[in-house]
Amino acid sequence: MKLGSLKNGRDGRLIVVSDDLAWFADAGHIVPTLQGALDEWERVEPLLKNLHTDLEHGAIPRMRFHERDAAAPLPRAYQWADGSAYVNHVALVRQARGAELPESFWHDPLMYQGGSDGFLGPRDPIPLRDEAWGCDLEAEVVVVTGDVPLGATREQALDAVRLVGLTNDVSLRNLIPGELAKGFGFFQSKPASAFSPVFVTPDALGERWQDGKLHGCLEVELNGQPFGRADAGEDMTFDFGTLIAHAAKTRALGAGTIIGSGTVSNRDTDGGPGKPVADGGLGYSCIAEVRMVETIQGGTAVTPFLRGGDRVAITMHDERHHPIFGTIEQEVVAG
Amino acid sequence: MKLGSLKNGRDGRLIVVSDDLAWFADAGHIVPTLQGALDEWERVEPLLKNLHTDLEHGAIPRMRFHERDAAAPLPRAYQWADGSAYVNHVALVRQARGAELPESFWHDPLMYQGGSDGFLGPRDPIPLRDEAWGCDLEAEVVVVTGDVPLGATREQALDAVRLVGLTNDVSLRNLIPGELAKGFGFFQSKPASAFSPVFVTPDALGERWQDGKLHGCLEVELNGQPFGRADAGEDMTFDFGTLIAHAAKTRALGAGTIIGSGTVSNRDTDGGPGKPVADGGLGYSCIAEVRMVETIQGGTAVTPFLRGGDRVAITMHDERHHPIFGTIEQEVVAG
């Protein structure tokens, strides 16, 4: 089942979307918002699934789904906690910052608390007040949980996964070193993230959802050119069950908690820094990584961070080359 | 005007509370929840104020207000961002951790993104899975904002302050050094915070709300003994306008954002480390601070962190010795 929110007020209007993303049916008679659905999932999920079946069978009135009308599936949320599960990415970014990677990073998940009071829709521009802040995209996988009890095991955590989706976790790279030096983590360096047009239940992902990971090529385009083709199921050191259990170690997590994978990143087959897609490599899911590789190879980062007018697209296709979650397509608007 | 939420489902039930905290009137016919009120404050505030006036005049049916029935005024929120505005506290805690205080901390506010998916009510126990985590209280002032535009000035930020209250920002001290060393800030070390029974509009605070600060003695009791008597209006290096503007530098803030002051802390009059209340000092708003002072004076911290059965109370009284925000009274439940 695929769920989305049409732009409407602060919390959107819940819709069920057809598997091919061509049609939707309003779910407002069941529950008005996705947060509302997550709040009483046990009661609401079977009703939404029936609606989805009717939609697929053409048994109810349906309307054309346009991704441009979609808000983030959760236009605001009570929690957004982002891991760094692809330790390869963390190692490269740290190297780029001249910071060391502690050995513990390979067995103790890194996670930060993100701002969740307002997210961008999949076609919303990225507002950037100052290009000198070094705006970057970060293509990631996310899951949305139900209630997770304090001290949940990995298995309990995986049972609580309700939905899977994609995000562009916008980062202001040039603000990060200063903030991290202060010791309290990211704040100003993490403006609003954008989410895919729809989130999908794990059962509808088939073999792509395995071992607490989403498997498939995460396609990232920068200004219309292929930029990233990493597989989200590869090199993910910590699966979502482990990430959620990490978050729930000292406190329960409320329904509607969004947990992020961190920037997807694959090791290069030859063990060296990743090659660009144009050179037959898997490319990058953020600009910081290609800048790192450029620095290693030529002494200087060449690819600039995002500037006004730059365009980013993030998607993942199924076997029939249909986007699973729809496509995040954003333009940076500076000033 | 004083607002609170009775325990009811995930978001509570909005009530207007009399100035003496003895009575309440249900506000459900205006708007069911406090978040709902904040979402459309311009429309709702005059209606709630009328209800408050009627309640004060005994012009409507009223019911006894019991603080034990109260949830946190916002039982969950879309954002909880906690500053460290009392740099005296930061300096002492850093000293206790053996970490240096950068000079920039005196002019660049420190702020972390906290978890906001579930808060404790003013009488809820503090759940503690492991006493070895070093559970501490932190008595703070908070404000709740309306919508704050991206890049808001301090003045715009102050205009957006809707409500003022108190919090116990529970911290797990022994988890902090490890988390901060990882560089991503607090996560497991910050379980759910508790909030005062009511939040109060700035206009109802009179001269106590001045220059973006709450003025008055923040009374903290530990196991029934006076523990802290610091004045929240003193030694606050960054006022709430500055804290909010800091948070809004790179992103807009959604209505219902809670901004915390950080642990309230006053310098001792003689310039040395603060004295306990029993010795005529202003005491402490967290245990870490007294442990720091003990270490300086005797080489070893003596006061233990919170253990099962320990009781914490946080309040602030007005001129007639009535609690302004009600009282946070919590017992630690270990295991």
From TrEMBL, chains A, B:
<feature type="domain" description="Fumarylacetoacetase N-terminal">
    <location>
        <begin position="1"/>
        <end position="76"/>
    </location>
</feature>
<dbReference type="GO" id="GO:0016787">
    <property type="term" value="F:hydrolase activity"/>
</dbReference>
<keyword id="KW-0378">Hydrolase</keyword>
<feature type="domain" description="Fumarylacetoacetase-like C-terminal">
    <location>
        <begin position="80"/>
        <end position="332"/>
    </location>
</feature>
<dbReference type="InterPro" id="IPR011234">
    <property type="entry name" value="Fumarylacetoacetase-like_C"/>
</dbReference>
<dbReference type="Pfam" id="PF01557">
    <property type="entry name" value="FAA_hydrolase"/>
</dbReference>
<dbReference type="InterPro" id="IPR036663">
    <property type="entry name" value="Fumarylacetoacetase_C_sf"/>
</dbReference>
<dbReference type="Pfam" id="PF18288">
    <property type="entry name" value="FAA_hydro_N_2"/>
</dbReference>
<dbReference type="InterPro" id="IPR041072">
    <property type="entry name" value="FAA_hydro_N"/>
</dbReference>
<protein>
    <submittedName>
        <fullName>FAA hydrolase family protein</fullName>
    </submittedName>
</protein>
